[in-house]
């Protein structure tokens, strides 16, 4: 991947060895690390000034929550993309992170090349969809469909048949190219299906938060 | 930890106030009969003030002063009782009129029981009994009955107080133990996280440096996967109803070759079903390792339907040529066929193999869960 201007990255991780290691790896490979932060509060405080294109976010930030940091950063920088790097498989946290607006997730066992590729994909606005994440997202839609819905609740998001088909193949480890060949779709169409599944979850999450805020009298009508 | 005794103190106070009213009303009616009506009124005023003082001390005052107050209570109460020979006439005593304080006086014994437990209760009851007998200067059936009731009340309330204290202490210890366990777990999590970070880092740097370092990196990577699996597989234990989380059990199969995708929420099935399904998936993965190669990547995906669970085990290998499986079955080499098909059929499910030259191999296992899950 050759970029005209280097991708600006902020690394949020409570572990200094990892933080510096990732920052160095990315710098060596042509990214510009504009900031690092050890916890959610620092990340939210520093992000607006650093204005990174991509935030690499660890979910386990000691006492603070990576999910809260994602929400806080995206509130101030809606155009910034968040890529979650998770050390241990905190499945529920990963789902929460995606709902809070993260556009992808990579386990820390990914190689430096995979990480760089994921950072570039995230910077270009594509989701980084591992098979593990596809399994989690499919499971979440399934769970939402099974929930008793309230009359006044925002419509529970559902996947189209095609989206389900695509997500299943992602979960089974197929690449976008392989999926495109299997379903006779273009690579871009596969990507956009995957992206839609995430966006619907994020919208649902946001509308639920707004509804909750109105119910609690925290916010006025939107 | 005087909080658990709070209901007892409140009960004592109610007793005190009610008996004060009852004793006062009765005394006012026969005020003329007393040897010293003014003395009787004074003693009752003292009782009223003391009731108010103890009400504040036992309920509102500092808990560590309640013991001292209970002792003072005994002193004041015996003082009240000691006025009996001066206030009442011998004729009244002969007629069976109770001494000064009457049924208000056991309150002090009860306070001592609550403050000091079983022994305090008995001691308090004996003090009040002695005061009762000495102040009246006689021992009759009525007096002996009073003594009996006093000792019984002291024993009962003292016992209740002792039990409540012990129980509260046990609760306190349990809460402390729980907090300590939670803290240990939190520390362990953070240590594990740190170890995972370092292992990941060693693996990545090792791979970059090559040579001997690469070997170290591979070792670190294996340990990283093993530790991560151990940490996230904790919920795969069998629960009280004999059920296990299939998703967690399958996640435990994760390795550097095997990727497992599953929902975040648990897929609980009878433990035996989960064990069988894991064995089938293992067989499929072993098949991949044998036919595609030990380093070949494989993907396990589990998904729940309305009343089924579907597991897919896929590899990107050359695929199994048409008829190979059937051929092997006919030749009696039942390895894959038997161990997988047999197990799945026993669970009432189906297993299909989607394969072909150049498109890898995918085993699709469907097992009904209706009636099995609740």
UniProtKB/TrEMBL annotation, chain A:
Transmembrane segments: none annotated. Pfam families: GerE, Response_reg. It comes from Pseudonocardia bannensis. The modification 4-aspartylphosphate is found at residue 58. InterPro entries: CheY-like_superfamily, NreC/VraR/RcsB-like_REC, Sig_transdc_resp-reg_C-effctor, Sig_transdc_resp-reg_receiver, Tscrpt_reg_LuxR_C, WalR-like. One of its GO terms (molecular function) is DNA binding. Residues 8-123 form the Response regulatory domain. Keywords: DNA-binding, Phosphoprotein. Residues 152-217 form the HTH luxR-type domain. CDD domains: LuxR_C_like, REC_NarL-like. SMART domains: HTH_LUXR, REC. It comes from the Bacteria. This is Response regulator transcription factor. GO terms for biological process: phosphorelay signal transduction system; regulation of DNA-templated transcription.
Automatic annotation (TrEMBL), chain B:
Residues 275-369 form the Histidine kinase/HSP90-like ATPase domain. GO terms for molecular function: kinase activity. The chain crosses the membrane at residues 12-29, 35-59, 71-88, 108-135, 147-168. Residues 6-166 form the DUF5931 domain. Gene3D superfamilies: Histidine kinase-like ATPase, C-terminal domain. Keywords: Kinase, Membrane, Transferase, Transmembrane, Transmembrane helix, Two-component regulatory system. Pfam families: DUF5931, HATPase_c. GO terms for biological process: phosphorelay signal transduction system. NCBIfam families: HK_morpho_MacS. This is Histidine kinase. It comes from Pseudonocardia bannensis.
